[in-house]
Structure prediction request, 144 residues.
Amino acid sequence: MAGENTVVPETRKLKRPVEEIRAELLADTDVKEQARMLQIPVEAYVEKILDYAQHPQKQMPLEITLDHELKAKDPKAATVEEIQGHLDKLISGEVIISRAQQRDGFSADKGDERYKAALASDAVLTGAPESRGAPTPPSGPKKG
Prediction:
């Protein structure tokens, strides 16, 4: 009697034949790149896409992995503690956000003001382009 109350989701009729959509997805370079980044075979990724297209009400699975299990699978993956430490360093200013990310090309003359406002600080970042002034020529042996 197990599963008597299980609701089987209705399959949505797609506007084009599944085989045609499958062939198009298998040939798509973006789909191939996404599958590569997810480290799954393209065919499996395409089948997952088609499954969600046919069953839009289906919930995607959420997988929660403990830090030590995640590190065992991928040593480069950041743990919750490592992410928290990085966020703390961003907040404290120990890790500085690249100034290039803040430039929009429309307010190049207000770089320091925008940067100070973002950090809530009046301290000019050492080595910042606006604080360097004119470049000093290299000193070489004097001709005399």
